[in-house]
Predict the structure.
Amino acid sequence: MNYYKVRFECSPCSEDITDLLAAFLADLGFESFEPDSTGLAAYVQASDYSEEAIREMVADFPMETSISFTSEFVVSKNWNEEWEKHYFKPIVIAGECVVHSSFHKDVPEATYDILIDPKMAFGTGHHATTSQMMRYILDIDDIEGRSVIDMGTGTGILAILCKMRGAGRVNGIEIDPGAFENAVENAALNSQAIDFICGDASALSDLPEADIFLANINRNVITADIKRYAEKIKNGGTLLLSGFYTADIPIVMEAAEPLGFSLSNASEEGDHWAAIRLIKK
């Protein structure tokens, strides 16, 4: 899958400016962001890239700053090689779970050992959204035998951790065919029986209700699909959400509360990335 990397320069620049800019870019389909002291780099699938939409967003930006941007087309790569060279290092989550890849040596020992070869899929535990979701999963005392749905499963890392912790039926749904294939491969690498579906939230109609529902996507997708999520969560069930900023929690709760969800816990990590645990009444 090809991407555009768009570099935004902001003058003046602040954390509030880059946070708001990332939120507006997420509305345009951008999937990941790398903020720094002068702006940010943002990534969007080539099929979702619109220079006109970016120019309109920049023109209407509500904070006092001058924004310029440049775009770079990124052709699909050998992502295992890219991760090995530049990004993916073994990581230990909450002292209980180690995530590493097949090319790593001297991997730390932990109760749960997850092998991930990420390729193009999102989810190695390094991003604050993934690590927070993993901590919530590690905190669930009664997960054994429980049913789980992982919406937007990416590498399958969250589904794999649930299964390792003793969950019963685990389903993962992923819209991107390449990421779907990667999730299937990673489950096999970890000898975990997980049923993956390639599709969007409409695929939920074929699944029974779950005790635990996971969605680490982004705010707009979550608020658009949360009614479908609610229909597939048992009363008293748990909904774990991430992929958005702390400032977005009220927006997510505005969509969730009318569906019977109450906020049980919220956390923040990194550049104001949030994760929340909701209970369905």
About this structure: The helical segments are 15-27, 51-59, 79-87, 128-139, 157-164, 177-189, 219-231, 249-256. The chain has a mean pLDDT of 91.
